[in-house]
Amino acid sequence: MLGRTANGLFWMFRYLERAENTARLLDAALRMALTRDLATAEAEWRSVIATLGLQRAYEAAHEGYDGLQVWNFVLRGSGNPGNVRAMFGAVRSNARMARTNISSDVWEAVNENWMQIDRLLARPVGQGMVGEVLGAIRRAGTQVHGAFDGSILRDEGYHFARAGTFIERADSTARIVDMKYFLLLPSLSYVGSSLDTGQWEQVLRSVAGARVYSWLNAGQIEARGIVEFVVLDDRFPRSLAFCRNALRGCLDALASTHGTDGRGVALMREFDTRIGHLSVDQIFEAGLHEFLIDFLARNAAIAQAIAEDYRFHA
Amino acid sequence: MWGSMSAGQGSFDEMFDSAGNTRPAYAEYCRWYNEQPPEFLRRKNREADDTFRRTGITFNVYGEDQAEERLIPFDMVPRIITAPEWRKLSRGIEQRVRALNSFLYDLYHRQEIVRAGRLPERLLRGNEAWLANMVGFTPPGGIYTHIVGIDLVRTGPDEFFVLEDNARTPSGVSYMLENRETMMGMFPDLFSRVAVESVSNYPRRLARSLAACVPPAFTGGKPTVAVLTPGIFNSAYFEHAFLADQMGAELVEGSDLRVVEGRVQMRTTRGFKPIDVLYRRVDDEFLDPLTFNPDSVLGVPGIMDVYRAGGITIANAPGTGVADDKAIYSFMPEIVEFYTGEKPLLPNVQTWRCADKDSLGYVLDNLAELVVKEVHGSGGYGMLIGPTSSKREIEAFRAKLAARPENYIAQPTLALSTCPIYTAKGLAPRHLDLRPFVLVSPDGIDITPGGLTRVALKKGSLVVNSSQGGGTKDTWVLKD
Predict the structure, then answer these.
(1) Same domain, B272 and B399
(2) Helix B83-107 with B332-340: angle, nearest 10 deg
(3) Helix orientation angle between A104-120 and A84-97, rounded to the nearest 10 degrees
(4) CA A151 to CA B84: how far, in whole Å?
(5) H helical segments located in B157-217
(6) Are residues B307 and B361 in the same domain?
(7) Which pLDDT band holds residue A224 (cuts at 50, 70, 90)?
(8) How far apart are CA A89 and CA A83, in angstroms?
């Protein structure tokens, strides 16, 4: 496979994942804003912008954190070149670039969803439409993944696509948890402060884990359990542990089809020995924020190593 | 339902005779059509558009926003050619393509045709597509034009003419294939009633044809074939990806390629891998920045040296564009006769070369009746269609023509044949042409039955180019 095609597959799935995660984040914030007072709502929208790293761009374009304004900025804002509409454009152009290495089913799923979402986001998204738009974005991800799983040869292309998915997903989950880490610090939960379970639930909802978590924990919402679930539970597909295991699988498969361990495999090994074995208590002890920052850096370094190992760029 | 049908302005209509009777080729199709409820046809017509959009069969329009992608309108009424008609056409096409290859070989070698006084030398010297560094070099297998598109027009029951030869990089074959797929998907019962020659194995034939032209450096095993595209913003990117996908070839861009150890190699995830045959969809001038346009980022620095040293096959060979020149076209009857020793089976359209004084005089006196074209032009740009132009346009063109007569040729305005298209008000005749696709390899010449039918969608219009609002039809060659 061409290095450029591998790059196309990798980024096609990164952008697809990013769009889906962004939709989930907005969905969770929307729900929070609808059920809380104005100040909480504003804080929530502010944290969405902060989680996405868009403070500067947003504040250059707008004053105040009003929901309508925030989701339009995130979804389609002209002052935000990385908006969701542009993400779908990038999904599609990467899919076109890798067209000879994806099936017609995958291509058509990408193209049809792009047509629909591009049309939905061509105009400002009002209160009445936002739910539908976010739903369409999530479904796009599901449809492309479904077509992909059902029709793609399990060779290197498959692993590049999955590597992109799990690197992006881990990045997103880590950022969401980091943005709320102060809510999840055990000291606060021991104090039994005014921070309510609704805020914690919010973290779970942003990573689509609220239902599963409460099913596993019989409705008990507490900070330590949430961190353990979102960071360490390798049964939950959006947890850091799950993403890391899946990524390790991709790296090993790529190494075996190519007959050589890349730098990515070495970085993953280092990752495993340094922070892979930590328990939730050890993580809290050393600092959740510090742990997440370290995680994000290692995740990004592995992405970079894959691009170099497999000649994504000339 | 057919009562209101009549062919426009004395043109030959391929579906109906002048009395309004269905011609035999269309008999079964028309029976089928008349059995379909009008609402069904309306719905299918809308569906066709959606199908093309969904599958992304689009082309980008030059000069417009990069994101701008358009559909080439598809008309769901097929264009039908009988088996005897096709046999005759394909004999003529084969003869012409054989002559084209011999001609190109001769031009870049001894130029016997010039020595024999059958072709003026100035036509070569003045030809922008002429490549001095192809002189004396013989491409692998002796093949110059691996893929040719011959544009044909029809004016009567037995009157077919060649309007243009596309020896450089003919496009449109993906539409031929997708049009058929779409028709079979929409109207499966139609294909059980009418026996139509299949076109779907074109990509396999293309792959085989290209693989038969390996360069001397080929080391055995399965030849590595790649399609070179300018990239996703090129107007024909869909076609490039489509063909690579269907052939099982890599789709490469200039940035993927590099000359390594005397071979053109592509950057794969496992390192550089040599390419044996490169089906390039990049024009000559962008192919090698070391040899041609130094600013080109679409090509591969050094590819021409590798080519000349036998390290790669380039299809079509650089320098074949010489034959697309319309001044050369006017000599095709002589060219066919010179190299095949036979009379041409397919006639040219009568052509006046404005470089000749007498012809120029005639053309200037009759501008309002003629079609005048630039010798290097393509895509329907830079031409004058006398009968549909205003006095002012004609006078403006007269000035251009007088300033550089050698840059133009003129042809009579042909009464192009028509075939009905589906419209909201029923069937309506529109003018059309036909581009059959021809594959050339050392094993022989292979013509896919049918080709791409382009149709003017505006009533009375003679311009069928997609860049100017033309559409396409599925083209059927009937089985015997």
Answers:
(1) no
(2) 80
(3) 160
(4) 43
(5) 173-186, 188-193, 202-211
(6) no
(7) confident
(8) 10
Same domain, B245 and B285: yes
Range of B253's domain? 87-148+200-340
B23: in domain: no
ipTM of the predicted structure?
0.86
Q: Is the CB of A2 less than 8 angstroms away from the CB of B256?
A: yes
B463 occurs within a structural domain = no
pLDDT band of residue B271 (cuts 50, 70, 90) is very high
Residue identified by tokens 């358009």 is B70
* Pick from A161-170, A191-200, B234-243, B366-375: least confident: A191-200
Residues of B in contact with A3 (CB under 8 A): 256, 267-269
d(CA A267, CA A302): 6
Q: For residues B260 and B375, state if they share a domain.
A: no
Residue A99 has its nearest CB partner, among B67, B245, B270, at B245
What is the C-alpha to C-alpha distance for residues A183 and A189, in angstroms, rounded to an integer? 8
Query: Reduced to 3 DSSP states, what percent helix, strand and coil does chain A have, rounded to the nearest 5?
Result: 80, 0, 20
Same domain, B248 and B371: no
| Predicted pLDDT of residue A186 | 60
Q: Do A2 and B268 touch (CB under 8 A)?
A: yes
Query: Distance (Å, rounded) from C-alpha B471 to C-alpha B84?
Result: 26
Give yes or no for a cis peptide into B316 (omega within 30° of 0): yes
Q: What is the pTM of this model?
A: 0.90
pLDDT tens for each residue of B134-152: 999 999 999 999 999 999 9
Q: Are B269 and A1 a contacting pair at CB < 8 A? A: yes
B66: Cβ–Cβ under 8 A, 6 or more apart, which residues?
B60, B233
